[in-house]
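Subject: design request, 346 residues
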């Protein structure tokens, strides 16, 4: 509504007066003002005193919420004040019954606006983060291409063509593989309790293990957010480790579980994955959660992490990457021999 009040002589449109209303009938300002019936006067009934006003110059305020009028006598307003606020769109008036509803509506609208702003801000941040990751991947691929180009230097024309084609295929495969894995999570160190080859039974145990881990880190993931869970790697592999007593023992290496989740579920899991390291349960502290990466990307990240750890170590120890291709891990060793500790595969 463009105005918070009216006088009887201000509601005439195109030289036509609104049709008369009885004192008991609700006045609809918008609908009545649009009718073109040639009737002289319209009656307005005060919502408090029920007095009917039909004269030009009668002074009433119209509630902007329920559209019911109220005279200035019932409002306790002077004519001078009425004339000051008359026609001001930035000075709306609401009756006592509607003022709470009006304020509530304004707050609700503001809340919705704030929520939309927060959502768009988070979405923009997510897009910018994704772009940074993509730029980083492209940079790494370019570096790999440059290295491969140096290797092939010195070959004949035919060899160069073949080498260039192979480089392009390798780069394309690497980029596609990273894209396909974007919503994957790798779970390391989850023991294989079931020795049978029954697919359904193995899958059920895998699902239960993942749900237990998700509960342990304090979040909830709906079943429809888990797209797929599957173990990868060779069964029955073992490795020799040094236990707490300093003795060497052979332990089984559980195959990695690769889980595919929705984007939002993966974000929640990865944000809380660090909680496993401080779990009260020995079982959960031995489990690792990592992004599912390609072999090249995983090796690069492991070597960088090992280098960073070594720089923070004392002069007696270094961190190195060891293990078979499907079970690479960082181990802490003394300079001159002997594994001190090792992490789960990365």
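Subject: RE: design request

Done. Sequence follows.
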């Amino acid at each position: 509504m463009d105005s918070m009040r009216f006088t009887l002589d201000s509601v005439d449109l195109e030289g036509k007066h609104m049709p008369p209303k009885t004192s008991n009938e609700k006045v609809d300002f918008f609908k009545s003002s649009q009718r073109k019936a040639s009737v002289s006067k319209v009656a307005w009934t005060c919502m408090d005193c029920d007095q009917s006003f039909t004269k030009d110059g009668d002074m009433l305020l119209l509630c902007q919420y329920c559209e019911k009028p109220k005279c200035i006598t019932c409002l306790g307003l002077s004519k001078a004040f009425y004339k000051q606020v008359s026609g001001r769109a930035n000075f709306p008036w609401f009756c006592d019954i509607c003022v709470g509803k009006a304020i509530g509506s304004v707050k609700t609208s503001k809340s919705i606006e704030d929520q939309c702003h927060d959502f768009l801000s988070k979405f923009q941040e997510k897009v910018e983060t994704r772009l940074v990751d993509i730029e980083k991947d492209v940079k790494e691929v370019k570096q790999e291409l440059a290295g491969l180009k140096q290797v092939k230097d010195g070959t004949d024309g035919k060899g160069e063509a073949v080498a260039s084609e192979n480089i392009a295929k390798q780069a394309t495969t690497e980029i596609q593989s990273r894209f396909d894995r974007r919503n994957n999570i790798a779970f390391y160190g989850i023991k294989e309790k079931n020795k049978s080859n029954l697919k359904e039974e193995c899958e059920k145990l895998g699902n239960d293990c993942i749900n237990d881990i998700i509960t342990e880190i304090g979040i909830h993931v709906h079943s429809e957010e888990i797209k797929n869970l599957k173990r990868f790697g060779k069964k029955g592999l073992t490795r020799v480790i040094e236990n707490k007593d300093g003795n060497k023992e052979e332990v089984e290496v559980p195959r990695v579980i690769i889980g595919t989740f929705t984007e939002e579920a993966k974000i929640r899991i990865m944000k809380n994955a660090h909680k496993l390291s401080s779990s009260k349960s020995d079982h959960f502290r031995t489990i690792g959660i990592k992004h599912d990466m390609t072999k090249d990307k995983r090796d690069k990240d492991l070597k960088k992490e090992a280098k960073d750890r070594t720089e923070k170590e004392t002069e007696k120890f270094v961190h190195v990457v060891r293990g078979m291709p499907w079970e690479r891990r960082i181990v802490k060793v003394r300079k001159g021999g002997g594994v001190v500790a090792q992490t789960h595969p990365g």
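The chain has a mean pLDDT of 73.
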